[in-house]
Design brief:
This protein has 222 residues and is an alpha/beta fold. The protein is built from ten helices and six strands. Strands 3-2-1-4-5-6 form a six-stranded parallel sheet. β4, α8 and β5 form a beta-alpha-beta unit.
């Protein structure tokens, strides 16, 4: 298991007003979270206060795709699974970075799949990270970005074990975390869907508990 950070540059490029989100009068935190947790239009393409504020393809994930392809030596014919793929933007960029790559996405949101990148829409499957509908060792590379922290502990346990089960070579995940009380407060203010508010050592405990041996990284709300 290694700490490999592909995501920090994208995460840090976004400006966030933590207090404004926590104190918003039109969308109080509980109301915003209720809307976000439907994983429907409000979360993906609604108001920024209830989610992404409009998730449209802009090519920003191509750098991540190139880094992943290089780091893991991905090649044509390799099978790749994205657990929590959203609209499939990173999967599409991976197919551009490595022509001939066989990609599959797992996503809980039917809305996200219906509005996915057209080129890979037919490669997306609706389902849960805790119950992957795939065979043992089916994929050469399994990854999950900004998804598993949304799971309660019983599903998180299953999801980590499932990533191990369906992968046969490389695995990578990125989740939200905090290193101090300031970052924990910012995470609490900003998040809409997070269930696992874990410090790095707590995440490490989950990795050992479930036998997850893939790579990982954390994003922090500084």
């Amino acid at each position: 298991m290694s700490y490999v950070d592909f995501i920090a540059p994208i995460h840090k490029a976004t400006t966030r007003d933590y207090l404004a989100r926590a104190n918003d009068q039109e969308f109080p935190k509980a109301k915003a979270a209720d809307l976000a947790l439907k994983w429907d239009v409000e979360y993906w393409d609604g108001d920024r206060r209830t989610g992404y504020g409009g998730m449209n393809y802009d090519g920003r994930w191509r750098k991540v795709a190139d880094l992943m392809a290089s780091h893991y030596g991905l090649k044509a014919g390799d099978k790749v699974l994205d657990v929590g793929c959203g609209k499939g933007f990173l999967l599409y960029d991976l197919t551009q970075a490595v022509p001939g790559l066989e990609v599959t996405g797992l996503e809980i949101s039917r809305y996200a799949i219906e509005h996915a990148k057209p080129e890979i829409k037919d490669r997306l499957v609706e389902g849960k990270a805790s119950e992957l509908p795939f065979k043992d060792a089916e994929f050469d590379f399994v990854f999950s970005i900004n998804t598993l922290h949304n799971l309660p502990c019983y599903d998180l346990d299953c999801a980590l074990r499932e990533m191990m089960r369906v992968g046969k070579k490389h695995r990578y995940l990125c989740v939200e975390s905090w290193r101090n009380e300031s970052e924990k407060a910012n995470l609490l203010y900003w998040q809409l869907t997070c269930r696992a508010f874990l410090a790095p050592d707590e995440w490490e405990w989950w990795f050992k508990q479930t036998g997850y041996t893939g790579d990982h990284s954390f994003i922090y709300f500084e």
